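Hello, quick one for you while I still have it in my head. A protein chain has come my way and I'm curious about its shape. Can you walk me through what the tokens say about the fold? No rush at all, and the record is pasted right below.
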Amino acid sequence: MDVEYEEVVSSILAIPRYKKKANLETVSYLLRLLHHPLAHVKVIHVAGTNGKGSVCAYLDSIGKAQGYSMGLFTSPHLLTIRERMRVGGEMISESDFVLCYKKVRQAEEQMLADGGVPATFFEVIFCMAAVYFAEKHVDYAIVEAGIGGRSDTTNIVHPVLSIITSVGLDHVAILGDTISQIAYEKAGVLKTSVPAVIGLVPEEAKEVIRRYGEEIDASCQFIEEYGLRILKNRPEGIDFSLDCGYDKEGFFHTGLMGAFQAFNAAVAILAAKRLFDIPYSVLFGAIADTVWEGRMEEVAPRFYVDGAHNEEAMHAFADTVLTCFGDKPKVVLYAVANDKDDVSMLRELLLSGVHTIIVTELLNERRTDVQQVGALIRQEARLLGIDKIEIKEMAELSKALDYVRAIQNTKDYVFCVGSLYLVAAVKEVFND
């Protein structure tokens, strides 16, 4: 690994993640100093509580299948920070990463000299991606929003299409503690006269988004109006149909597991129809070939990782486990960040039919105490009337992983869930 690259990564990871007041002034100033790198790129802006990464992956696959040069900006990363920016499906190289950082850093120094404030981690990374996409002359840039929508760093873009994948309770301290409040924040990515595709959202969120779209003349397509039907749902993937003009030609298939992936794929299909004149055969192949790490991903036989880290995502995880694995013996390795609604997540997890939950800690400052989490699981299990479940607390992640890997070598199925930080740690072990 290049020494200069390692130094740049260390510098970026040391940048503060948040500022006191979220606004778009800093990123706007930086992009102006960088000569508006996305000015001539068609941007697809993807926001939502869950499903953003999967929808981005589907769209990237579709665009490439149609012959376009596709840029992809996503977060967070699992194993390397370079995952956050890709062109043509390939991560940015170490040398290009360094060059993009230097350009953004030079612009930031000018901004500070002009009296501006330092950029946050996400502002720096996003501007680096914008510079990279411009230099690679991509046809389309798929930009995943970070936290929120209205005041999110990425909301500086002027897209050709906006997408809201879902609306659920997450980051409530920042976005609000009701579905309506969070829907209002997500709806902030909609732009005047720019069409939008909306995934499966609660009725109260739908009304907020619809009303806001009407106010700014942003035509919204809601996925629920297109008659999605799941034909087969199994560990190998999902067959589904969609009333969108292709239904007479056949069904679609995604190899990604879980019923929610059919809805994510459907969002991408509707988006593709707004953007491209794409034949059914090309679209079918692109959806079927899409791969997205860390979402019900089988990293070894009977060993799965999933990034579910809020109530909505954990409900989808539990539904997938029940549907695809039924009465098979199931063990969960669980870790959660300290800013999550642990109670709601655990209720969903306990209803997934697992017989053992091993609680461990994340390897960062957002870890939660395993004894507290274990006590909470026992409390919620009693309230739900679940008595045939074993809870183990193993704070040291390496020992917990050794324990569940030994289980995986028997007949049990193992699922690692609760945080993308846990997913990253597990994948790193299996990639060694």
